[in-house]
Design brief:
Pilus_assmbl_Flp-typ_CpaB, 5 helices, transmembrane helix, transmembrane, single chain, 10 strands, Type Iii Antifreeze Protein Isoform Hplc 12, membrane, 3 domains, SAF, two-stranded antiparallel sheet
């Protein structure tokens, strides 16, 4: 009987160790970006405008949480062979689609097929106090006069910011170009934000800017949810919501009072 208890304890302890090991592996993946994903990197320094050859490329595993959206995967290797490097690429540096091709890059290099770059005029308030940076995601709200009423409506959701301000760097080195872009952001408030949209969305934004005022709302980068059928907001709806909330608040705050009748206490709302 005693041996059975010992074996049972050993089995329980082994199971606990196994569960702890699995848990620690999962936590390690979360902390270090998840499982590895193979991407193409520069096997040696690649000068700007140099055609990329097979010997310039190597494969490296990168944690999935740290893979750049424009990373190039090994199955696209043949597509970039012979194409010029837009920037000087350093040995070991992951190669992005925006690194490939002629020209200085700029906003066009940050666009996916089917997207268009469009600038939205902002001020310190509508531009989120100068805190936006490339790759942020925002919602676009518009305020208009409609039928004698002033309304605010969510026009677009989950839109990618590809630039802030008007400066686009022409640096030969990609890292320097990105640092220059960040530096231009830190110099002060910007008057425009460039976003990636479809042609149909661009039409909506052009008309919205002409007929009303736009504002940007910053999203959590992990929040990709798009809400459907969001209602427009007017001053009347705000006041109605305020009245309803105030009424609910008063109901919760009503104090109970005791009324003494014939020596019996009764509670009254």
């Amino acid at each position: 009987m005693e041996k059975k208890r010992i074996w049972f304890a050993v089995i329980i302890a082994a199971a606990a160790v196994l569960l702890l090991f699995v848990y620690m592996q999962q936590k390690e993946k979360q902390v270090f970006g998840g499982s590895g994903v193979e991407v193409l990197v520069a096997a040696s320094d690649i000068p700007r405008e140099t055609p990329i050859q097979a010997g310039n490329l190597a494969i490296r595993k990168v944690p999935s949480g740290f893979v750049h959206p424009h990373a190039i995967y090994p199955d696209s290797r043949d597509v970039i062979l012979g194409q010029p490097a837009r920037y000087t690429l350093l040995k070991g540096q992951p190669i992005l689609w925006s690194d490939i091709g002629k020209g200085e890059g700029g906003f066009s290099a940050a666009l996916n097929p089917g997207e268009r770059a469009m600038a939205i005029a902002v001020d310190e308030i509508t531009g989120i106090a100068g805190s936006l940076k490339p790759n942020d995601r925002v919602d676009v709200l518009g305020t208009f006069e409609s039928g004698g009423r002033t309304i605010t409506k969510v026009i677009l959701q989950n839109v990618t910011v590809i630039g802030v301000g008007t400066k686009v760097s022409s640096s030969e080195n990609k890292d320097e170009a990105e640092m220059n872009m960040i530096g231009s952001m830190l110099q002060g408030a910007y008057s425009s934000v460039t976003v990636a949209v479809t042609p149909e969305e661009a039409e909506m934004l052009v008309l919205a800017q002409e007929r009303g005022k736009l504002a940007l709302v910053l999203r959590n980068p992990a929040d990709l949810d798009v809400k459907e059928n969001l209602p427009e907001v007017s001053l009347g709806s705000i006041l109605e919501t305020e009245r309803r909330l105030n009424a609910q608040r008063k109901e919760r705050q009503v104090e109970r009072t005791e009324i003494i009748k014939g020596g019996v206490a009764e509670q009254n709302q």
